[in-house]
TrEMBL record, chain A:
Domain of life, source organism: Bacteria
Keyword annotations of the record: Phosphate transport, Signal, Transport
Any single biological process term in GO: phosphate ion transmembrane transport
Coiled-coil region: none
GO molecular function terms listed in the Swiss-Prot or TrEMBL record: phosphate ion binding
GO cellular component, one term: ATP-binding cassette (ABC) transporter complex
Annotated family: Belongs to the PstS family.
Name used for this protein in its record: Phosphate-binding protein
NCBIfam families in alphabetical order: 3a0107s03
SUPFAM superfamilies documented for this protein: Periplasmic binding protein-like II (SSF53850)
Gene3D superfamilies reported for this sequence: Periplasmic binding protein-like II
Pfam families per the UniProt record, alphabetical: PBP_like_2 (PF12849)
Signal peptide: 1-24
Automatic annotation (TrEMBL), chain B:
Any one Gene Ontology BP term: phosphate ion transport
Main location: membrane
Subcellular location: Cell membrane
Record-given protein name: Phosphate transport system permease protein
Amino acid sequence: MMRTQTPRRCIAALSALSLTCALAACGDNVDPSQTPQANASSISGSFAGAGASSQQTAVEAWIAGYQKSNPNAKISYNPSGSGAGVTTFLTGATVWAGSDKPLDDEQVEQSKKVCAGQTAFDVPVYISPLAIVFRLRGVSDAGKHVNMDAATVAKVFNGKITMWNDTAIAKQNPDLDLPATPITVVHRSDKSGTTLNFVEYLKAAAPGDWPHKLSENWPNDVGQGAKGTSGVISTIDQADGTIGYSDYSQAGGLGTISIKVGDGYTDISAEAASKAVANASLSSEAKGEHRVVLDIDHTTTAEGAYPIVLVSYDIACPVYSDANTARFAKSWLGYVVSDKGQQDAMSATGSAPLPDNVAKTVRQSVDAINAK
Amino acid sequence: MTTTTSQPSPGLGESTLTAPVAGKQADKVFKGIAVACGILILVVLAAVAMFLLVQAWPLIGGDQAANSETISKFTGGKAHSFWGYVGPLLFGTVLVAALALVIAFFVSIGIALFISHYAPRRLAAVLSYIVDLLAAIPSVIYGLWGGLVLVPSIYPFWNWVAQYLGWIPLFAGPASNPPRTVATVALVLAIMILPIITSMARDIFQQTPKLLEEAALGLGATKWEMIKLAVLPFGKSGIVSASMLGLGRALGETMAVLMILSPGLKYSFKLLQASQDQTIAANIAAQYPEADSIGVSVLIGTGLVLFVLTFLVNLLARRITEKAGK
């Protein structure tokens, strides 16, 4: 056994070494000419956040942008997942948390411990359209979209429609020559905010065809599960006739479904998603000061709106006991929700910028951050 | 005169044979280290068991309503109690590992016999080396290979199996495409445990007393009969313990399962269909990142069950080996 262990250790050591080199290389490509001098009002110190992995790429872009004006602020983000991020935040170990779902009442109550007696608030910072991606020979590789209304999508993902040339699909796509290929549904096997936001759409837009309760875990036995967005995409890529859902930025060369909104079908795009969010209302269920929780109108009929979106929140305290931390939280979140910050995220991930009406409310909440 | 010469001089004997020498101290130290190492194993085992118990305690002694809510969230409402959750996982774990063992067992014995009794000396040396090399490949590599290469390319085969052998409930169709199924995972796990079983079995077959083999041949046995009469009975207990070692690895294998299998939560023997079963280890790895505190104790509770299972398997292996050794 010892003999067989040694080479394995060597491989492990080698891969660790190469990984370190790769990471070091990542950290090195900051252009020195772009690093400005620290000015008196800039923030310094080390600050940590944790939470939703969906935000990770956007947060990296924000950190890079933020550090241009605050080069002495060291910011880290651990993409440990929404649940873990909120749990860490509630222990006081992190300044803010990223989460694909708003806080629940119990968590709001618990936050008094870390927010100097006040309750934490959540604001939307990252809005990403969720694509329904598919691979079908003769359709997706020809760059064509397939049109579906909400009921059809729900039936496909609930296993009621099992063939691509089903009349329900064919009727909506008179121009396409759909093959008689069985549909393989691919969904997330791990707990995921992407799943939650997707089934929220199904539940709201096609309640008759989607009987399952809302959950971050996939609720039925249809099709196949795969771990993480990358797992879903690679599974879809491995066979003909597959369909699944993912963050738009990850959809790559796969085909996307156009969703019926009003009388027409909307192709997925950042602008279309932003339009749907602009029509959203503030949730009345969210109790607590400064909270901005969106109720997306999944049944919107606004022309050109794409109603399947993932809304990811940042969770922070209105009051921090440490003055420096409070100063950081205010300026950091201020940057994230600024036009510049939203543009950063858009160019890095293809996310939709916060619509003006939402951004205004969000900035008011962020401005309220104070030291005790 | 005679008395003085016949009696050994006590002073001389003591100084050279029984008096303490420099090595005596080292002997004590070495014994101490060896004992400490032995005890360390027990301490580590106890520490792991304690860790699992303590972390899983909220599940056993805590608020059962909260537990059942967490479990039903984990499973999208498919299971509500811990045993309803861990039962199918346990079933999946045993099914996948047992299948892998069945596939790997016969191939391994074949390779081991070829190396020890059939192959020319030089080829045997090369083969031995390759088998040891296979054992050194990390499981994540097998997982990547299985997920990216084997899964897309093995579909036509499984489809053929489902078409012509579909009347056997195990192979009931339609075969899933892409085939991220128990059958594919078992195949990859079989390849992973193959080198372990092979190299142990080979070592044992090579130790078969020459006398026994020559006696069998001398009685007119053919080579196959000689192996059946002399080699296999001699190596029986070794083969069993090699298999159990392989089974142990298959039971705990995480990465390869995680990267290939499309998980489900059923008691299902449908090997060619996706989303039927899941293993405990892969389930922990999949659910851990997004689990809250109760979720973590539920997952660690399933880990405790896996711990007990591997313990029992090893115990059983010991029993069988002892019986076969007699």
